[in-house]
Amino acid sequence: MYCRSLIVLCVVCMSVFVETAREEPGLARAARIIGGTTANEGEWPWLVNLRGKIVTRTTFFGLIPTAHKHLFCGGSVISDRWILTAAHCFDDRQVKKKTHIYSRNWEAKMASVNLRDGIVDRLRHLAGTIFNRRDWRTWEIDVERIVIHPGYSGRNGWSHDIALVKLKRSVPSGQDFSRIRRVKLPATNDTSFPAIGSTCKMKGWGCTSGGGSIAESARSVDLPIFSPRRCRNIFAATGMANRICAGYMYSGRGICAGDSGGPLTCQNDIGEWVQVGVASFASRDTPGRYPAVFTRVSSYLEWIKRVTGL
């Protein structure tokens, strides 16, 4: 036991040294949401990265997978077992079979702004498992169940674009663990918050530029609440009462693929961050030139409570 502890201690020391070197100026990656900034560890403890691995080709009588498609979406922690995200994350029409909705193909990663774990993360997770240090562990949990809103339609402008994901095991989302915390939700059917023109924040792993690849680190961008009337005219979108627009015109700031399902949060009168929206869609070809559309969370609180029992 003494030898094992000594080995683990050496591993931890080595990981700390590597981590320090990685954070030296000039070595860190400078990834940005379109016009935003890199998020810091622990800054948004409710942020979730949902990852799907879908088999697209098999061989030997369809038994052995030979090719996969990787899907990425954002989400938010709303309880120890439930994640809030977008329904269209599980509606990939390029996959012939509807395997993308199978929960076994998905996992949720929390308590990290990094899309993928490096050697330092894996070593720290090993040490955290042995020493029962949850603040060192990597929080990757398999998905048990995916619940898509019954009114969702990908063929009707992604109406009711909201979904719930149940984890196979609980995570410590209470106030005693700072790395994972549940986000505060708005009041039911409150359409007065946030006000048009107020500035909110969007977090996610979407591309750093229009047409770019998904980012390795989560980023945050300030987005002002946009007029729903103007937004409706831009996208020819219906059902704006259940949606929020946020962003700019021709500013080079916004969201894009990979940010889907991520939380739009605004500060209330007492300074609390409240999730008001779920990232639904933006302009496909020029996402930084137009505002983005979010599903309004307050319109679906009764459904959320009914499904989760919260």
UniProtKB/TrEMBL annotation:
Asked if the record carries the keyword Chaperone, the reply is no
Keyword set includes Metal-binding: no
Q: Which domain of life is it from?
A: Eukaryota
Q: Which GO terms describe its molecular function?
A: serine-type endopeptidase activity
Where does the record locate the signal sequence feature? Answer: 1-20
Xref: CDD domains: Tryp_SPc (cd00190)
Q: Which GO terms describe its biological process?
A: proteolysis
PROSITE patterns, alphabetically?
TRYPSIN_DOM (PS50240), TRYPSIN_HIS (PS00134), TRYPSIN_SER (PS00135)
Q: Which Gene3D superfamilies match?
A: Trypsin-like serine proteases
- Residue stretches making up the Peptidase S1 domain: 33-309
Q: Which UniProt keywords apply?
A: Disulfide bond, Hydrolase, Protease, Serine protease, Signal
* SMART domains named among the record's database cross-references: Tryp_SPc
The record's similarity note reads: Belongs to the peptidase S1 family. CLIP subfamily.
Q: Sorted alphabetically, which PANTHER family does this protein's record hold?
A: TRYPTASE-RELATED
Q: Protein name, please?
A: Peptidase S1 domain-containing protein
Q: Which organism is it from?
A: Pinctada imbricata
